[in-house]
Amino acid sequence: MNLIVCMKQVPSSNEVRMDPKTKTIIRDAKSAVWNPFDRSALEVAVLLKEQLGGHITALSMGIPDTSRLLEEAISCGADEALLLSDRAFAGADTLATSYALSLGVKEIGPYHLILCGKMAVDGDTAQIGPELAETLGIPHITDVTQIVFASEKELIVSRKIDGASQLVQVTLPALLTVVKEIAQPRLPSIASILHAKETPCTVRNAQNLQADTTRTGLLGSPTQVVKTFTPPPKQSGVTLSAKPDQAAKEIAALFEEVKR
Amino acid sequence: MISIDSALCRGCGLCVKTCAQQALFLENKKAFCKDSCTLCGICVDACPFHALSLPQKTAKEDLSAYCGIWVVAQCDQGRLLPVTLELLGKARQLADQKQVPLSAVLLSNQAETLARELIFSGADQVLLLSHSSLAAEDEELTFRLLAEEIERRKPEIVLFGATAFGRSVAPRLAARLRTGLTADCTQLEIDKEQGLLLQTRPAFGGNLMATIATPYARPQMATVRAGIFPTPKRDTSRTGTQVLLPFPTKKKPGLHVLETQIQAENSSLPSAQLLVVAGKGIGTKKNMKLVHRFAQLVGAQVGVSRPLVEAGWSDYRYQIGQTGVTVHPKILLSLGVSGAIQHLAGISGAETIIAVNTDPHAPIFQVADYKVQADCIATLESLIQRYESQK
């Protein structure tokens, strides 16, 4: 089974704060890590490969430095890695990103299944999976919680939707977005880390991929940020006692007032 | 990369400070940009001399042909979802402001009955696909119907509830129509100058809001979570038209839903009147017991912030925030929650917020009505003692 796992590099700290006075971003420790949902997607691919045999390609779009993390993907079970990196890809929204990823998928060649995390923890949009599936013209299933049956022809999966769970059958090739709990990502072994160091990550730019650059990056992104701001404080709140006992008394009074 | 007009640049360095990617630097008192620029545009706003600019885009087609607002309706076992009504209420305001018609799109086996309800809640027109086979939601059919009807009827704005269904269908549709989609908006407005839909949502994974527009593609698409907008008053004197849609072109389906199991909604958080919310500041998983004990004593529900779900101390269905549950309690006691913007988006509907945190700079204090700068566990223990001694 040929598997492709889409992976996104995200800041390790979820706290990008803006100083409301100077309008500058206060940087916390911001080293890059994999989106945790994508790690689970990679683990699902590794489990499927163990069951059915096959080949796993980790696919990402990002700055050249992303290759460092793709090496980590190889140490966690991917056979190879493809990084799409070009100035022409910068500033991409989800539509332009899914177009670039679709070119990456075509570069990889025939596949049975594409796995994506349900969403990324930095953007929270959960749009790339369905958008990529449509760009490639294959069916997609979101919020997958379990792979019930797998072959190279079809999958049966369960998914969690609002107030219900579903059992869905899909003919391959197809794309799944998976929840984080679907699998517990394994830690790399020393041997796999050494193997990853010897397996270079393939890097492709817009020209290699024959990309239509009116569809990539900022130019290919229909959405644009017109304004960023820090939300104004609601009002100046009342400060209660900083002594736990006294504060508890005041909090209890507020609760009792509401309950009355 | 961002363009920098070196004639206008004074080398003040403000842009360098705003760049989260650390892509900008100064050399000989002029700003320069490295490849790591992601064109986020924050520096463009920060430059007092207008020296920085983003590449300009233009429309690929005539946008004036697009008119009207659509809300994609959802129902469950013969009842419209609350988020559908909330969207209609908001969309009604937008439609009035733009002076365009508001349509609801509905696929159902009881479409005629529900169509009336959609009109009572603000729709001028209901586009229906009514058939006995449409008892359950069908993502692929909805997608194909919307793709065909949007190309035919050209609405300017299309809104979805950010349900599992909406979050699956809307992005696929945006990719088909090659247009923009903004997920989980917390605010929707019409721009007074150009009439564009301004879509505001938390961004950059931090305490920052971004207003996003889709200036050069149509339709402008957005999803909104349940509980963000108020439910409009049902007005039975309202009238509107119903338009029967044809079935979309037949295509072999890729998916087969073999079984759907309804799971009782175990979370009553959205309707909780009294709420206790725990965050990282409670210190250990063991302390969740104290949180639950107090909640039980006072008759409150318990919610958590995202880090606790990620740490495995609680379940996702109790997560409060932009990508979790939106709550509207009369009173909310927030314990050790720092207050990331996504979390604040989920609690903005609370009438009274009491925040307990040791960090005086925690963003939660900016939205709190009552602030307690103290150890949340000590406060909690004291609260439990107080209630237990009353028994």
Can you offer a commentary on this structure?
The complex is a heterodimer of chains A (about 260) and B (about 400). In chain A, the strands form 3 sheets. A 9-stranded mixed β-sheet of chain A has the order 11-10-9-12-8-1-6-7-13, sandwiched between helices. Chain A has a two-stranded antiparallel ribbon with strand order 2-5. Chain A has a two-stranded antiparallel ribbon with strand order 3-4. Chain A has 6 helices and 15 strands. Chain A is α/β, with parallel strands linked by helices. Chain A is globular. Chain B has about 400 residues and is α/β, with parallel strands linked by helices. Chain B is about 30% helix and about 25% strand. In chain B, helix 5 (about 140-155) packs across helix 6 (about 165-175). The longest helix of chain B is centred in the first third of the chain and has 17 residues, at about 80-100. The mean pLDDT of chain B is about 90. The interface between A and B is large, with 96 and 113 residues.
Order of strands, widest sheet of chain B: 11-15-10-5-8-9-16
Total separate domains of chain A: 1
Helical/strand content category of chain A: alpha/beta
Please state the overall shape of chain A, judged from the principal axes of the Cα atoms: globular
Give the fraction of residues assigned to helices of chain B: 25-40%
Looking at the overall shape, the CATH architecture of chain A is: 3-Layer(aba) Sandwich
Strand content of chain B: 15-25%
Q: Might you state the CATH topology name of chain A?
A: Rossmann fold
Number of strands of chain A: 15
**What does the overall shape of chain B look like?**
flat
State the helical fraction of chain A.
25-40%
